[in-house]
Design goal:
- Helix 2 runs antiparallel to helix 3.
- The protein folds into two domains: 30 residues; 88 residues.
- It contains three helices and no strands.
- The termini are far apart.
- The longest helix is centred in the C-terminal third of the chain and has 44 residues.
- Keywords: Signal.
């Protein structure tokens, strides 16, 4: 293939891709409701996202704890010498990964707390509407 054919194909592909990106949001905007109609929707979405991320990090942390427990058993069962040294090395590596995950979990907990704070502030700023009128008769 010649270079000009390659560049021509690349230009055509890029044009089609860009046209798709321009048309797709225009179509998507027609079918979705604006998020501004629901007060604090973006803050609630951020809280939901942070909760999901915390759940994933917590699951990873629990798996890391199980690996540390298993590595400790292997160290206890290993015979003296090279086998024991390798088991201790494996235990150190697993503990290091667990500690990294622990730091990540703590950071995610703080992110969630901040997101919940922002949501609470947003909800506090919203005017309260009476749900039903009070009869004066």
């Amino acid at each position: 293939m010649s270079v000009s054919i390659r560049f021509g194909g690349l230009a055509a592909s890029a044009t089609i891709a860009l046209a798709g990106l321009v048309v797709a949001p225009a179509v998507a905007d027609d079918t979705t409701e604006p998020t501004e109609t629901v007060p604090c929707a973006s803050e609630q979405a951020k809280v939901d996202k942070a909760e999901d991320a915390l759940a994933r990090v917590t699951a990873v942390f629990e798996r890391q704890q199980a690996k540390v427990k298993k590595a400790r058993k292997e160290v206890a069962q290993a015979e003296a010498g090279r086998e024991k040294a390798e088991a201790r090395k494996a235990l150190r590596e697993v503990k290091a990964k667990k500690n990294d995950t622990k730091v990540t979990k703590r950071a995610q907990q703080q992110r969630l707390a901040k997101a919940q704070e922002r949501l609470a502030e947003c909800e506090a700023e919203q005017p309260t509407e009476p749900t039903e009128p009070t009869p004066t008769a």
